[in-house]
Specification:
The chain is 65% helix and 0% strand. It is mainly α and 99 residues long.
């Protein structure tokens, strides 16, 4: 953030944040591996039962599943922040006094 903090492109950091969140969701999806584990984790995250089952059994790839409704409902921005994800947009905003 030291170098890019001087840039005045808020949209760039917003796009990077969205891409990072989707990539992390894809990594979690890949980490869960089996449909049973995926279903359990989606239910634990608050996704409705029928939707969790349907998404857990999907054969689509991790990148596609990272953008589905179920992962967006379960793995929200707040949940990702609890997991330790830092937002580039907020870090950039904190350096606003340098511009």
């Amino acid at each position: 953030m030291g170098y890019f903090g001087l840039a005045s492109q808020l949209k760039l950091f917003d796009r990077l944040d969205r891409w990072l969140r989707r990539r992390i969701r894809a990594c979690y999806w890949k980490q869960w591996r089996r449909p049973k584990r995926r279903r359990e984790m989606l239910l634990h995250l608050g996704v409705p039962g029928r939707q969790a089952i349907r998404h857990a059994r999907s054969r689509k790839g991790t990148w596609h599943m990272a953008k589905t409704i179920a992962s967006g409902v379960g793995m929200t921005k707040a949940w990702l922040q609890e997991q330790g994800l830092l937002s580039l947009k907020t870090l950039w905003a904190s350096l606003a006094h340098l511009r």
